[in-house]
Amino acid sequence: MLFCGVKFCGGCNPRFERRKVLEQLKEHFEGRIEFAYAQEGIVYDILLIIGGCTNCCASFSQYTTKRGNIKLWDVSHVERVIEELEGQLSLADDAK
Asked: How many angstroms separate the most distant Cα atoms in the chain?
């Protein structure tokens, strides 16, 4: 199972329901990826940055990850994010 930190932007100009997208991802990856709101001092396998507009301005350099981060700032990015996370799961399985 992967541990994914989630960082939201401040929400000053959201153009889609960001939390709804997170719920969709949680449902898709149930039992395979644990999603948690990102906190400093915790090491995540990967960090998901969810921005509400094209600026995707949420800061994330304060978080530590083993495999980098994925940015999403439009609902049309959900399929790409699913593919990237599926790829990360495959890498994790191969490493076992």
From this structure: 42
Instruction: Give the tens place of pLDDT for each residue, 34-90.
Output: 999 999 999 999 999 999 998 888 999 999 999 999 999 999 999 999 999 999 999
Instruction: Print burial letters for 61-70: b (CB count within 10 Å at least 16), e (below 16).
Output: eebebeeebb
CA dist 71 and 55 (Å) reads: 11
Print the domain residue range for 65: 2-95
* Residue 21 to residue 63: CA distance in whole angstroms: 21
Q: What domain count does the chain have?
A: 1
- 90 phi and psi, to 5 degrees? -65, -40
Question: Which residue is it, tokens 């997208």?
Answer: 21
Q: Is 44 exposed, middle or buried (0-12, 13-18, 19+ CB in 10 A)?
A: buried
Q: Which residue, 62, 49, 41, is CA-closest to 7?
A: 49
Model pTM score: 0.94
